[in-house]
Write a structure and sequence with these properties.
Blueprint: H1 3-9, H2 16-24, E1 28-30, E2 33-34, E3 46-51, E4 54-60, E5 76-78
Antiparallel strand pairs: 1-2, 1-3, 3-4, 4-5
Helix pairs in contact: 1-2
Keywords: Protein biosynthesis, RNA-binding, rRNA-binding, tRNA-binding
Domain RNA-binding S4: 1-64
Family: Belongs to the RqcP family.
């Protein structure tokens, strides 16, 4: 699954276009590597998103095309 779609489906970032822009600006890392929005994310990857002065680091637990709001937290675990 593409990283921009994963960020939207897991609700780490609210909209896919914003996730896409964050990737283009170099604020999204997978396993400590800056990536593009089209990069593939796999189960077990460590994703870090830089929001201004703070960062959110999560581990991918599962991948789904769509989720309900209540189930979105099950896709990742905060580190």
């Amino acid at each position: 699954m593409r990283i921009d779609k994963f960020l939207k489906v897991s609700r780490i970032i609210k909209r896919r276009t914003i996730a896409n822009e964050a990737c283009d600006a170099g604020r999204v890392l997978i396993n400590d590597k800056v990536i593009k929005a089209s990069a593939e994310v796999k189960v077990g990857d460590i994703v870090e998103v830089l929001f201004g002065g703070k960062s959110v680091k999560v581990e991918v637990l599962s991948l789904k095309e769509t989720t309900k709001k209540d189930e979105a937290q099950e896709l990742f675990k905060y580190l």
